[in-house]
Amino acid sequence: MNSIRLRSLPHLLLAFVLTFAGIQQASAQDAAAVKKEGVAPGATAAATPATAAAPAAGGGDAAAIAAGDALFKGNCAQCHAVNEQVVGPALAGITKRRPISWILPWVKNSSKVVASGDDYAVALFNKFNKQQMPSFALSDKEVTSIVAYITSQEGAAAAPAGGVTAGNAAAADGQAAAGGADAGAGKYVDILLIVLVVVLIVLVVTLVIIGNLMKDVLRGRKDLDGRDIEILEQRFDWGKFYRSPVLRGIVGVVFALVLLYEGVQSVMAVGLNQGYQPTQPIAFSHKLHAGTNQINCAYCHTSVYKSKSANIPSANICMNCHSQVKTESPEIKKIYRAIERKQPIQWVRIHNLPDLAYFNHSQHTQVAGLQCQTCHGPIQNMEVVYQYSALTMGWCINCHREMPLNTKDNKYYDNLVKLHDSKNAGAPFTVSSNGGTECSKCHY
Ligand code: HEC
Ligand code: HEC
Ligand code: HEC
Ligand code: HEC
Ligand code: HEC
Ligand code: HEC
């Protein structure tokens, strides 16, 4: 009977350890993914219900948040980020600053709200140098889903820099506290899991001990017949268990399903490099140059508003400053060495569409007026650049379906706008209504 205890206990322990390790790994991956998006670590799935429960968040269920995510990236991200000021204010805490009954008309037509003399709107408009936010032909449901998405992304380290009310500071404080609570919740779950595992182990050990004690008591009794003794001395037959066709069937099916799932996932991911972040030959930091020192993107990427591709700057451009700045730094000496050897710096390329697709920067930056961050993410905060967007065909098409054309002060579009409005008055004049989803625009 000792052998039962010795054999089954290690199996059980192993099972617990494996389960626990699995859970730990899954939550660590969550945290890593969330961190990359710029949200405070620890604000994992557990935090979502808490934030979504905030008033006027519009029932922030996962579907609404996902829809809001796409709408936000397609329409708002060129000017807004959740936790930092871009062109417009940071939108974190917007439900605390303004009721949803204010947000809906604002997003649909902000100039109307300003014209109506609304104190908050006028003050905000003046604070942002009378820069007009465009009107959006979005439904109430779509705007609420954007708000739900914003609420779900709140709580990063940066304090919101928007807003004008006195309550703003208080809102920011509340948010920081909420962020702290989220991080606390993550730790709390970990501790709970450890306690649960310990309790389970103690339970199993107790049960095994009780079982053995009862057997010892039974063995002491004389009135047992042959069948009772057989049951008493019965051992768990692992061999039979392993050979059982039912078990083999279940394991086989699970194995096949996992294999199928992994297979489909890896086929879908062919050519997908989202998040790709190679180490560069020189520790060049966009955070230091484009962020801290506010050097304009086009100072280095000189062709980005003029031509199809954005160039990577040559060493000469670096020398405009580094002939004077930090000349003793070993990283800067690498630039000098490249120039002496008359060889370009071997930067590793990050973004790379396949040759079958045509993409033109000037069409998007100069003509459409899109910000670099819409597609490349918060480059000005990156020490090392990574590929922020998926760069799949679906990514291009989704934006083309939703993004209104920038027709202002562009004579080329005047007649087209008239034609469009005479036929579908009210419908937004998107890239796709101008043929931007036809195959031949991107493949030829
Ligand atoms: C072209 C830039 C631009 C785009 C695109 C844009 N906004 Fe704005 N937004 C602004 C500016 C600028 C302000 C500040 C007010 C002003 O100057 O009119 C603002 C203000 C706001 C405010 C008020 C913020 C506060 O702190 O009170 C909200 C809410 C808002 N925008 C939501 C949105 C949503 C939702 C979208 C996408 C559907 C969007 N914006 C798209 C530029 C933009
Ligand atoms: C001082 C010069 C400089 C400035 C300013 C600058 N960059 Fe860069 N950028 C570089 C260099 C050098 C590289 C190549 C090395 C690297 O990837 O870090 C690069 C790489 C990139 C890449 C990746 C290219 C690839 O390989 O796919 C993107 C995207 C990018 N920059 C966008 C921006 C944006 C957006 C801004 C403005 C917010 C900006 N850059 C400002 C010098 C600059
Ligand atoms: C417009 C001016 C300007 C240009 C152009 C410029 N830099 Fe810089 N760079 C700076 C400044 C300012 C610093 C920060 C110096 C400091 O920390 O005191 C810096 C710092 C650096 C550092 C960090 C050095 C260290 O050891 O701390 C590296 C590496 C660097 N730059 C590489 C480059 C490369 C590569 C290019 C060309 C693609 C480039 N820079 C172009 C102004 C510039
Ligand atoms: C509409 C989305 C979009 C916008 C806006 C955008 N880019 Fe890009 N960028 C891309 C795509 C897609 C690629 C990959 C192009 C390729 O491989 O042919 C890319 C590639 C790059 C590269 C690598 C060199 C190249 O051309 O392949 C640099 C550098 C770059 N972008 C800088 C910028 C800067 C700076 C801005 C803002 C002035 C900007 N981008 C705006 C989508 C965008
Ligand atoms: C964030 C939104 C956005 C993304 C992402 C985007 N585009 Fe665009 N694209 C636009 C806008 C806006 C225009 C319209 C520019 C104009 O006014 O002509 C446009 C225009 C174009 C055009 C010209 C269409 C025409 O009617 O002549 C092509 C081609 C194009 N995009 C290709 C691409 C490709 C390829 C990708 C993906 C790698 C992509 N775009 C991703 C917003 C986007
Ligand atoms: C807005 C630009 C755009 C339009 C419009 C567009 N595509 Fe694409 N397409 C792309 C891009 C970008 C890729 C490369 C995506 C990648 O590497 O994952 C691509 C890839 C493909 C591929 C190769 C798929 C692969 O995995 O290699 C095929 C086939 C394709 N497109 C067919 C079409 C057809 C058919 C249409 C018209 C119904 C169309 N595309 C319209 C941008 C576009």
TrEMBL record:
Keyword Heme: yes
Signal peptide, first to last residue: 1-28
Parts of the chain that traverse the membrane: 191-214, 245-264
Organism: Hymenobacter negativus
Residue ranges annotated for the Cytochrome c domain, each copy included: 63-154
Source organism superkingdom: Bacteria
InterPro entries named among the record's database cross-references: Cyt_c-like_dom, Cyt_c-like_dom_sf, Cyt_c7-like, Multihaem_cyt_sf
Keyword annotations: Heme, Iron, Membrane, Metal-binding, Signal, Transmembrane, Transmembrane helix
Any Pfam family: Cytochrom_C
Cross-referenced Gene3D superfamilies: Cytochrome c-like domain, Cytochrome C3
Protein name in UniProt: C-type cytochrome
SUPFAM superfamilies: Cytochrome c, Multiheme cytochromes
PROSITE patterns given in the database record: CYTC
Coiled-coil spans in chain: none
